[in-house]
Structures are given as structure tokens and as C-alpha cells.
Amino acid sequence: MNNTVIKAHPIMTLNIIKFYLFVLIIPVVRIIILHLRLEKTDKTYILETIIGILIFLFATIARKNIFIVLSNEFISINKGILIRSRAVINKRNISGLCIKKTIFDKIFKSVGCEIYAETERNGKFFIKLSENDAKRLYKSVFKEENTTELKNSSGEKALLAARLSSSLAGLAIGIATINKTSDLLGITIKDVSFIKINVFPKIINYITVILFAAYFVSFAVNFVICLNTRFESSKQNLKIKFGFLSKKNTILKKKKINNVCFEQNIFMAIIKKQFICVFAMGEIGSKGNKPVLTGVVRQGEQHESITKEISFLKPTEKCIYPSKNKTIFKRITFFQKTIAFSVILATIGVSASFSRFIEIILIFGATILVLDLCYMAARVLEYKRAKVCFGDHFYALGAVGLKTKELYCKKSKIGTIKIIELPKDKKLKTCKIKVISSSNTAVIVRHLDKKAVIKGINESFYLNLVE
Amino acid sequence: MTFILPQKTLLLWQIRIVFAIVFVCVSFLLVAGFSKTVLFLCLIIFIIGFIVSFIYVPIYFKNYELIVEKNCIIIKKGLFFKATIIMPCYNLVFYQTFATPLANMMNMKIIMLKATKKCIFIPELKNADVESILKTFRMKKCE
To answer: What's the rounded Cα separation, in Å, for the pair A216 and A237?
Structure first.
């Protein structure tokens, strides 16, 4: 294959000047309109007009100097006017490609391409290309293969949306909408009296209503996104397509997957479902340590089409299980039982002393008790299922907080292993381990036999750790 | 190779803690004025500081051990909660050394090991020890 040169689409010029848009370009456009309508010019705008024109010229020249050279093995991305830069990436080191298409792009038949190299920083390159050039780039990096669509039901998509939603995100997106809707419905937050608990200060009621509404907005937005999200899997790649008005396609090489994590909370355990989170290498996977793919699968079922080519999903060594004896089981429940007992006693004591605030005290007491019981249930569930397998393919099933987590990764993708020994562990000869993968996914496995853990680590990492 | 923290590190941290306690107590007294409550709070801070600097820190540092193996870096530490941190070398992105003026005067340096997404600080070690650890990394014994 000869070297092919792909030039940036003219719309890239707008992309370069978008930082100056509000400072220079919009005021200049305004003055031109004013000049045309009223035939008078403010002198301050003349300087801005000159700078605006210069920036536009600069952006046009800069855009003309942006191009990609495709060769058999490498992709080189060139840019710059005075200081020319050239990034040469081996195609093997490209972890993924993201193609974005906004409404503007649809009009101008362009797409925005983000090329992700396999590094944590400075590994993302953005360029606007024409649709045909983007296809050429895609074909040069990824092989055309048959794909299978991974289907999730609407209920599963709702679960996924609930996992991705947060009140904070909802507030950012929809505070104006919440305000406007309440105006249109003729109610203000003060009138929302469906919360009949009048023991809390009013401000807490208002905050609760706002947070609930914000979560609902976030959930609605995420649900629409999830409805429009499609996952496709081929032998070597994973494709994630989503977007309503502006579309975003992310293609990821399966080889570049760092680790796969299955998560389950208590509610999901009841309905026997799990979230599958796929973490990737390099900048494509480093956005706040978020997974590049999140889906819902049935408990114990590895989605075959995703996992087909991911070798590390099959542990190679024998697993180590928590020591099963009554003393440890008592130890697990002892702490939570003590908390539950103390909370009941404290609630009775405090409500007897401050009878005026009995409702608020009971609510707080009940909340802590429910949380404590949930935590106890999670610990018992974890104790029954927990295991860890050292070896070339690492596997750990443990828990973090109220979530049960299963982590699969290659041995080389383990960031750190922490062996923690509490005073009680010394007597029982047990320990807990915290494993952090290189994508920052953490799993804690408790009550493991220390001797077996050290033996496993020594064999896996060729060490001579002593107990 | 096994490294333990030198006696100088303990002295350095004791100086730091004592300075911090004196600074907190003096600023507290200057801001809140001399009263029984303030003096009582200062006394509590002083006792906590004393326990930390002359009881907790010496035992913690005594239990601190750094082992540089062929393909892993192992850190053993902890007083009540014993912890062993194992960091495989292939995930060591970079390492950095730095020294505060006081540590510099004592010919000591801190090493910061940056794994893919986790950072581990090793308290002050003698310059010679630091050099020998870094030499091990540079000579790619740790790979």
C-alpha cells in the first residue's frame, strides 16, 4: 500500500477558531450587521475585526497544514504552521477510534475523528474529515468483519440508565427544566406536599424534592441515550454507537481491553442480573476511569459475543476461597449485629430524652438500621461467593461497599496488590487483599487463608514472600 | 534488596510533627486568646502529638520495609493494620525523587513510584540507598 494522504475537511477551520468565537467572531459579526443596518461603526470594533480576520486566516492556513498520512504500518498525523508537529503511531498501538457526527457535520458531509493511541496522556488526536476519508481511515486501521449486535431489553436499558444517573448530573442538565416545569404546572417546590414528613426542616424537604427531580431528569436523559445505544461485537473489535441528534461511534480493539468487571448490587442480586463494565487501555479508557462499555447480563453468564476473543476471562489457576468456619462467619456478622444493637439502643435512649424530635430520631435510626442490614447481607453474600485466582489470568470475586465485584484481567494488568492483616486476622491466620487493576478498578476479597494467598502470589509473581 | 528506614528519617518526622504541634497551638492561642478551654484543647493536641511522634511513628517506621525484587516492589508497613503492598514492575510508569530543605540537609530523599494509576510514596531514605534503588530500576533488573 502506497502512502495515502488525507486532508482535514474545511469545517476544521471552525473547529480551530471555536475558542475565539465568543470573544472575537460574534462581536465582529454583530458590528458588520450593525454597520449594514445603521451605517455607523464603533472604532473599537475595527481592531476586533482586523484581529478576527487574522485569526480566520491563521485558522485556514492551520487547517490546510493538518493532514494524515496512511501507510502499511503507520499513521502519521501532521499539523502546525510555524512549529510543525508530526505524530507517528504504529497501527498496532491504536486502541480505538471515535467518529462523531453532529447536525453541522450532516450538512457539510463531514465527521469528527478521534484517534486514540495506547498511552495514558497526550494519546488523543482529533481531526475533522470528509465522510469518505473517515471510511478510508477506518478501513486502514480496522479489518472489516461480521458483527453481532448485543441486545438489551428495555428493562435492562432502564437498569443501565439508573446506574449511569446521578442527581448532580441531573441538576447540571435540568435545573432550568425543573424550574420551568414546576411553573407550568402551577406549583412551586414549597407546594410539593407529597412528602408528608413534616419533622424535617423545610429546607431538607425542598432539597430532597430537587434532588429527586434532578435524578429523574438524569435518568430520563440516560434512558433516551441507552435506548439509542447499540453495541456490536466482531471477532477483534467492539463497536459502541450512540446518540440521538448527533451520533457517536466508538470502535475499540478487543486486544486493548485492560480488564472486564462484573458488578452487582443487592437489588440486582435479587433479580439475578449483573452489570458488565469493559475498561480499555490508553486515553480511550481514561476518562475519569469510566468503562468504555457498560451493559447488563444475566448472573453467571458471560456475554459470549463480547468475551469470545478475550482470553483472560478464563482463569488459569485454581482459586483460593475464604476459610469456611463458624468463627469467621460469626466475625462477619458480629460487627454488623453490634452496630444494629447499638443503633436500636441509641434510638430508644435518644427518643426518650428528646421526645419532641421522636419522628426525626426514628427516621434516622431506621435508615441506619436498614443500611447496616444491607451491609450485613452484602458481607454474607460476599463470604459465600468470594474467591481469587492468581496466575496468568487473574480473577477475583469480592466486594466494595454494597457492591459485589468480579474482576478479570491479565496478570500484567494488575496495578497493585495490597495484603491487609487486622489484629483479629492474626489469630485466625487470615487476611484480606485489595487488588487494583491498571484501570483503577478495585476489588477487596476478605477472610482468605494467608498462607494460600502468599503461596499464590509467590508462584504467580516469582517472589519469596514470607508470612 | 531490602531497605529499612534510617534513624534519621524518624528524627526528621519527629521534628516535623513537633513543629506542626507548636505551630497549631501557638496560632490557636493567638487567635482564640488565653482561656481555660483553649489551654485544655492545646493540651489535648500536645498529648496526641506526643503519642504520634514518640510512640506511633517510631513503631510504624520500625515496621516499614521496602523490598526490591526481580519483578516486583514490595512495601511492608503498618502498626495495628499490617499491610503488604506488591507493585509489579511492568506497571511502574515512572519514579521521581524529591527532598525538602531539611531532608536535603540530612542527605535524604523521598521516592515517589507512579504505577499506571496509583502513586506510592516511600518516606525519606539515605541518598546512597535511593541511588541504589534507582540504579536497580535503571539497569532494568526490575522488569
So the answer is: 34
Cα–Cα distance for residue pair A210/B47, rounded to 1 Å: 46
- What is residue A102's three-state secondary structure? coil
What residues contact A119, with CB distance under 8 A and at least 6 apart? Answer: A282, A283
- For residue B28, count other CB atoms closer than 10 A to its CB: 15
Is the CB of residue A251 less than 8 Å from the CB of residue A230?
Answer: no
Task: Name A256's Cβ contacts closer than 8 Å, sequence gap at least 6.
Answer: A95, A96, A118, A280, A281, A282, A284
Q: How far is residue A140's CA from residue A133's CA, in Å, rounded to a whole number?
A: 11
- Residue B143, pLDDT > 50, answer no
**Residue B86 CB neighbours (<10 A):** 23
Q: Is A109 left (phi over 0), alpha (psi -120 to 50) or beta?
A: left
Q: Is A132 exposed, middle or buried (0-12, 13-18, 19+ CB in 10 A)?
A: exposed
Put simply, whether B1 touches A (Cβ < 8 Å) is no
CB contacts under 8 A, B 80-99 vs A, are 80-88, 90-91, 93
3-class secondary structure, A422:
coil
pLDDT tens for residues A195-208? Answer: 455 556 667 767 77
Give the three-state DSSP class for A70. strand
| Angle, helix A358-385 to helix A326-353, in steps of 10 degrees | 170
Site of grid cell 498525523 = A77
Question: Residues A14, A84: contact at Cβ < 8 Å?
Answer: no
Q: Which of B81, B85, B88 sits opposite A461 (nearest CB)?
A: B88
Give dist(CA A397, CA A407) in Å, integer. Answer: 6
Helix (H) or strand (E) holding A177: helix A167-184
- Residues of chain B positioned with their CB less than 8 A from the CB of A412: 88, 90-91
Q: CA A158, CA A216: separation in Å to the nearest integer?
A: 12
Across A223-239, average pLDDT? 81
The answer to whether A461 contacts B71, with C-beta atoms less than 8 Å apart, is: yes
Q: What is the ipTM of this complex?
A: 0.77
Question: What is the secondary structure of A197-251 as a DSSP string?
Answer: --SS-HHHHHHHHHHHHHHHHHHHHHHHHHHT-EEEE-SSEEEEEE-SSSEEEEE
How high is the pLDDT of residue B104?
Answer: 87
Nearest to A98 by CA among A309, A342, A293: A293
Number of CB pairs, chain A paired with chain B, less than 8 A apart? 71
Q: Are A416 and B78 in contact (CB < 8 Å)?
A: no
Per-residue pLDDT of A274-307, as tens digits, reads 888 888 766 565 554 677 777 777 777 665 666 6
Looking at CA atoms only, how far is residue B112 from chain A in angstroms? Answer: 15
Q: In Å, how far are A31, A228, A240, A306, B54 from A231, measured between CA atoms?
A: 48, 10, 5, 9, 59
Residues in chain A: 467
Q: What single DSSP character describes residue A73?
A: S
Interacting residues of B69 by C-beta distance below 8 A, sequence separation 6+? A463, A464, B142
Mean pLDDT of chain B: 85
* Residues in B 100-119 with any Cβ partner in A closer than 8 A: 115-118
Contacts of A419 in chain B (CB under 8 A): 83-86
